[in-house]
Structure prediction request, 447 residues.
Amino acid sequence: MNQQHQAASQAAGQGLLERLFALKGHGTTARTEVIAGITTFLTMVYIVFVNPQILSAAGMDTQAVFVTTCLIAGIGSILMGLLANLPIALAPAMGLNAFFAFVVVAGMGYSWQIGMGTIFWGAMGLLILTLLRVRYWLIANIPLTLRVGITAGIGLLIALLGLHNAGIVVASPATMVTVGDLTSLPCLLGLLGFFLICIFSARGVHSAVLIAIVVTTTLGWLFGDVTFKGFVSMPPSIEPVFGQLDLMGSLDISLAGIIFSFMLVNLFDSSGTLIGVTNRAKLADDKGHFPRMKQALLVDSVSSVGGAFMGTSSVTAFIESSSGVAVGGRTGLTAIVVGLLFLLAIFFSPVAAMVPAYAAAGALIYVGVLMCSELTRVKWEDLTEAVPAFMTAVMMPFSFSITEGIAIGFISYCVMKAGTGRWREINPCVLVVALLFVLKFVWVDSH
Prediction:
């Protein structure tokens, strides 16, 4: 009797999963989806260690950010699975978190509450673009060379921050920057972490970043630089960061460029990831359209808004989701498994509190490597394409600002195309953005 009851319960459970996710129609099974979810989680769980470490540089409570990072990653991924039925997980974006902490707050002197407000308004802009169905129109009308330049520029900026956090690159009054003490413990462990990630990734190890963080943190503990704080505890309070954003203060006209940058970069990042992962899962058509695209874009946008309100940086679809796809993940069940694991991770806050800055530095440098690889897509033989990409990319680390890099990129694109008589290649979208940035330089920055 018990066996019959168990068999009936199992059949009912399988029937529910089939109705929700159409497993057979996608050529997958519940077991495969669970394995895919675990795989994706292991490749992206590093964000719960790295994100609090980065945002702490802005003065935010590390433990609270750890919890909000887990919460928004868990909730966003589960919503993606339930509403869009896609094997794509969400979490706070690498790159924009560093831009927020090191540039907007530490560099420009704004409070983290105002900085979080700019993230919120940027996310709201992205949500409005999604609801008005102009998101893909924007992507289609912004030239590839600028999109590539933006991605590479963020990568260079992230790499610079990683090198600085590990003490590999330090300030110098004579040469602006110079090499730090390469024999110091943070520098050695930071370099070790970076090369471990690169080597493991080259050998196809999905959890390379996580392994490197664990190894470098453990070595830091063995050398007395890290204090052991335990493994499991009740989740810390999120009150120090939850709902603490300054919405009115962040509406200052001088912050318009920053808000636009958060919106534009998040638009490229998330949309590109959604297309890339669904294409790898053979769910997208030749034009990049995939099932439940509207729902996926909506979940992505709403998660970004929710993340800012909860007290964490811009949320996006994670390219690491492709690791789960590689082992057979095809439906939203994969994303739900990832989300549940992130929610479970909330109870491991003591582990996150032990991770030193140099342990996360290797991940930042590695992300920079990946993002700079986009430069291979630039037509370097065509200066009207090469110059805008180059100026966009180099201006971000040299000006320590994503906003200025985007601005110079759009303006230089128009200048090069118009100056060589190819003004017909300048579409209205690029021209309008370039003119807005010119007005920003003339009327906002000069006053």
Q: What stands out?
A: The longest helix spans residues 256-280. Residues 27-226+243-444 form one domain. The chain has a mean pLDDT of 89.
